Amino acid sequence: MNKLITAINELKKEKKALILAHYYQRSELQDIADFVGDSLALAQWASKTDADVIVMCGVHFMAETAKILNPSKTVLIPDMDAGCSLADSCPADKFEEFVNAHPDHTVISYVNTSAGVKAVTDIVVTSTNAKQIVDSLPKDEKIIFGPDYNLGNYINSITGRNMLLWNGACHVHEQFSVEKILALKKIYPNAIVLAHPECKNTLLSISDFVGSTSALLKYAQTSDCNQFIVATESGILHQMQKACPEKTFIPAPPNDSTCACNECNFMRLNTLEKLYLCLKNETPEVLVDEKIAVKAVKPIVRMLDISE
Ligand code: 13P
Ligand code: SF4
Hints:
alpha/beta, Rossmann fold, 4-stranded parallel beta sheet, about 15% strand, globular, binds 1,3-dihydroxyacetonephosphate, binds iron/sulfur cluster, cytoplasm, pyridine nucleotide biosynthesis
């Protein structure tokens, strides 16, 4: 392991590469990355780097976003199969039909989408800035929000909007068991329940705080409470535990106790060894069709401008 870490650091220097990692990555990938963050922070870092090569330890849409922002740079991903069930729940051709059927609507898409979906979008959002961006639009603006139904429904509830929602979902966040969380609350009555807005409404309604991964981390750091039940992908617990070693973080249990369903199987495809190989061989490389990229960059830049 130590040899691999040394080799990765040498290759990184030699190739002038930047390693970005999402909070849902394996701990060892978070630890070797130049920067660890949520979807918004990764896009922000990708938009301002002067590195020649960007390695995205995350899933495909994150690497695609980095490539769209940096068409002349090499963007690598340790495992090309690191996809996203939420992005897959929104095929670009079907979403375009939905958009065309509602021509008087502004189209907001979650960053967890393919470049093809972004190409027919007006503004991209992440879970960190979705409320801020929706609030920035006139109150009477008709809005389509896709693809995450739970996030869209949550944003409707906290903004008083009535956005038209695409019915997509993340297979990790939909899996958490309300009954098992309530049972845990009996064992840890002082624990605070933290939940990501991709979770179902029934879970959000029994949570104490709802926010993006970075918001959940910040809440855990600044709260006086010492125990947390965390309803999002369990990779975030690594940063929570690092930031607050004296506090207790309990991963929220999924409905099916026979699987590690609170881990994203796509995120976990990336490993230290695959990171080493991808830096060494400069493959798999993420490419985006130029005609699509030219359209997809606009709503991403619009998001970055609003989020500054
Ligand atoms: P954030 O990084 O915006 O919290 O989103 C979580 C997620 O599902 C990434 O795949
Ligand atoms: Fe996609 Fe869900 Fe995995 Fe995030 S956790 S990458 S939304 S499947």
